[in-house]
Amino acid sequence: LEQCAAEDAKVIVFSEWERMLHLVRDACLDAGLDCAWHTGSIPQHKRRADIVRFKEDPGCRVFLTTDAGATGLNLQVASVVVNCDLPWNPARLEPRIARAWRKFQSKPVTVYNLISENTIEHRMLDTLATKRAVAESVLDLAGAVATVPLRSGRKEMAERLRALASPQENLAAATPATDKPPAARDLANEFAHRVRQRLGGQLVACELRTPDGGEAPTLLVVVEHVAQGKAPWVEDLRQEFFGGPDAETPAPRLEVLDRATHEAIERMIAAGLIQMTPHARRSLLEEAPPQPPPLTPEQSLLLRQSADRATHLLRRARVLGDAEFADEAFASLREALLPLATAVSLARRLPIPTTSAELQREPWNTLWPGIEDDAEHLGSDLGNAWASVADRFSTALESLRASLPD
Questions:
Q1: What is the pLDDT at residue 168?
Q2: Residue 314 and residue 393 in contact, taking contact as beta carbons nearer than 8 Å
Q3: pTM exceeding 0.70
Q4: Which pLDDT does position 174 carry in this prediction?
Q5: How high is the pLDDT of residue 406?
Q6: Positive or negative, the Cα torsion across 84, 90, 92, 97?
Q7: 250 and 217 in contact (C-beta within 8 Å)?
Q8: Rounded to an integer, what distance in angstroms lies between the CA atom of residue 191 and that of residue 188?
């Protein structure tokens, strides 16, 4: 930075982390260099003022920004770009450089990528090079890329294990496998947690009640309200787990009640107005949920791509909304709705929705709080209410990413 100042050059410094930018700003102040600040947490009018100051003030030498400044800015006054860290997606690197290397740039642009040696970031360079080669093979003119070096999945996994796992990486391979019989499935427990997965907070209770006389047990499902509307698909789910009338083992019967009806029956039993048949009562929701089936590689890829797409569109909506382009912000949120619903559905092992209208129906209307309103009203003019929709989307994305394995 001091060399750039001596050569009368202006510098753009990118980092995905505001903490890193704070450290760079402290170093600039120690060196006597004035700097502009541009992140998503800064109000729009303050960001505009710093952009103008960087362009017009000869004393403002450094422009510190996160990826919030990687698009839409014309900063041809800068001739040096410094990337303090590299994104996993190489396509996000080009827009950073394009803030300075663009039309009407009259000076050569120098790009510095800062890499810490012998770190995961260092080993990331090979992954970025492979991704860039794949992109070039698809997007370049025919014949411009002859070969694309791709590593096998087995080799890739071995290298990741060597890089990230403990030194005793072969310990598991040296441990002899034991031939243990598979544990018997608890179908009632799996059924209960599938119902909870689809209903979320609308599920009040789920019990298995077994009469003392050896009769078939009963699955009791208590929901918040409108039990009749939920009974058909719950019955389909019961048959999926236990089979229909022709099953070899008698399947438990199903009773679906709303909360008000269930509480009324319990009060009548307590008052002695109803005689209850002696039975064993097992609450299924108090038990640990079974592990969901793993996603296929194709489903995992679609989940990540949908979540990334929704994240990108949400960021764009916030930028447009902060600039008081409410209609454009809503357009981005409408575009983000289905990718976000797709990612959350895959994470919960639900069917993938194909239209926004489906999000107002079971089982998708419980993907996140307010999704029914989002699906219904995003097509209408809601004025400046885009921020509340964006906040709901952000909360859903945070919950989604927290539920995914690293």
A1: 40
A2: yes
A3: no
A4: 40
A5: 57
A6: positive
A7: no
A8: 5
Q: Which two tokens stand for residue 144?
A: 């411009």
10-residue mean pLDDT profile of the chain (406 residues): values are: 81 90 90 88 86 91 87 87 83 84 85 83 70 59 50 55 46 44 70 80 82 77 69 79 66 84 84 76 66 80 90 88 80 88 86 83 76 68 70 86 72
Is there a contact between 55 and 31 (Cβ–Cβ < 8 Å)?
no
Nearest partner of 346 among 270, 294, 286, judged by Cα: 294
Tokens 């370049």 locate to: 140
Cβ-Cβ contacts under 8 Å for 364 (sequence gap 6 or more):
341, 345, 350, 353, 358, 371
Instruction: Determine contact, residues 191/252, Cβ cutoff 8 Å.
Output: no
Q: In the beta sheet, which residues pair with residue 220? A: 207, 255
